[in-house]
Every structure is written in C-alpha cells, then in structure tokens.
Amino acid sequence: MEKIDFVILWVDGADPAWREEFGHYRRQAGMDASESRYRDWRTLHYWFRAVEAYAPWVNKIHLVTWGHLPAWLNREHPKLHIVHHSDYIPAEWLPTFNTNTLELNLHRIEGLAEHFVLFNDDTFLTRPCREEDFFREGLPCDMARLSIVRPSSIGQLILNNLKLINERHSHKVLYRHFSKWIAPCYGLSNILKTLLLLPWSFIPGFYDPHQPQPYRKSDFARGWEQWGEQMAATCRTRFRDLGNLSEWLIRYDTLCRGEFIPQSKRDGRMVTLTDQSAAEIASLIASQAQRLLCIHDEACDDFEATCATLHRGFETLLPEKSSYER
Hints:
Blueprint: E1 4-9, H1 16-25, H2 44-54, E2 61-65, E3 80-84, H3 85-88, H4 99-104, E4 115-120, E5 123-125, E6 135-136, E7 139-142, H5 153-168, H6 173-176, H7 178-181, H8 188-197, E8 213-216, H9 217-235, H10 248-256, E9 261-262, E10 268-273, H11 278-287, E11 292-297, H12 303-317
Parallel strand pairs: 1-2, 1-4, 2-3, 7-9, 10-11
Antiparallel strand pairs: 4-8, 5-11, 6-7
Helix pairs in contact: 5-10, 11-12
C-alpha cells in the first residue's frame, strides 16, 4: 500500500496577531469577511485523537496554519509537519484569508506524499478507517454522481468549476466510464439521479459529499497545467470571491477522467451545529453512528454553552490524550 498523508487546514480566529492582519485587509473582503467563518471550536485536539485511534496507519499529518499553533500541540511528533502559509503559497498571494488559495496550492507542500486526504477542521473520523477506504490500486476512492447545482454563494463557485470542466470534458465521459458512474455500491437512489440527468448535453454538476477528500498530488499539478491562469486569478483574491475556483475542480477533473475507484458515501454525514442541535450532534459523536462526520458551523447565540455541549460528545468518545498532545 502506498504512503497516505493527511492534510488539515486550521485557523485560530481569536489570535490577536491574526485578527490585526485580518482587520487590516478586511476592507477588501469578499465572501469570507464574516469572522464566524474563522471561529475555532477548540476541537482540534479531538481531531488528532481520532486520527491516532482510528487511522494509526497515516504516514504524515500536514497541519496548515497562518502561523499560530495551539499550546497543547506536541510540535516534535515524528508524524507531524507544521506548514505555515508562507511555506508553500507564493509570496505574491500572501497574506491570504481565502481557503481556495490554500487548497489549490496543496501540491506545493514540501514532502507531501503523492496520495493524501484533505480534511477541513470540521471533518472528523469517529470509527476505525483503513487505507483502502481512501485509496485502492493507486486511485482515490470516490462517488461519481450527477447533480443539479443549487443557487447560492457556494453554488457559484461550483458553477465556475463546471464551466472549465465542460470546456475540457464532454458529457460522454459518463459513457466511457459507465461502470464507474453506475456502480451498484452507490445505491439505487444515487444511480437513478445520475440516469435522470444523462440526457443532458453537458455535465450539470456533481454530488459533493463534504467528507475528507482523497487526492493525488500529481492531479493538482495537472490542474495547474490546464487552468493555471484561472487558478492564479483565484489566488490573487485575499478573501473568497464569487469569481473563484475551488479544489473541487481537481476532483471533478479526476472523476471525468475515470481515475477513481467507486465507493459509497453512506458512512459519512454532514450536520449543522446550532444552539439547538448541539446535544443531538454530541450524542451522534459519542454513539459512533457515522464513520465520518462533518460538523458545519451555523450562527450560535451562546458559543460557550454550545462548545461545551459539543465537547462532551468528543470526551465520551475520545477521553484520553493522544501522542500529539503535550
């Protein structure tokens, strides 16, 4: 089995130095101007505990940070690689508060393995995982399913990606790799959704699972060869903007090329964290009902109480410190 790295993006929105720089550039703000997008729920140590407990086979963890680090972090851990934005983002695009810039340039991280899994800091493992859950035969495991893009700010970024995908790939890629698009492991409902959209003369959209995403470093390099000018335009915007591309462009290109192994996404779930839903999510975490969990942050009136409730779920599941903690 090839070496598999994990990459996680993390920001401490309460850090005074970061807030000063954020405030200085905020007047140029786009979609990411809201401070709530950078709010730290103080769950990063649980993410490391989960990785050690449920994916001990990981080769290296690349923690991407603006520069701040949590006090509890064991910075000398042999599997930990601390990556500052300035370590891999070209200087002309710094400072950046644009997650698209951080993600589109991941292949530039020194020492990153060819096969890696991208985590956001709101995505967690809650049950044991195998290397084969992310890569098989050297290819990322993923689900190819057609979908309609819903109007939204995120939807606009997806449409920007799709414009480039449709210019490069005919919708006939579905027929060339039909067995991968109509794989039984997806389940009847997902297969039917794709079949209903097959008559369209272009690719209308893809199902995006909001789970840890396996990638090959070489696919990012190929993306820059194909769309370097457009990707660079995204990186010049310090905050996420409606004209941006996202890392999903790389995923879509890989799906269209048929360079993936079909896999169901039924063992992952995205939940929305609010004051009202926190207790239910904590119970979901503690019960290990899903193998992969994305906890989407919504506006919360009582941050401290909601944070404490969420932590109770993680403490039930992962009460012991990991070797990544001091």
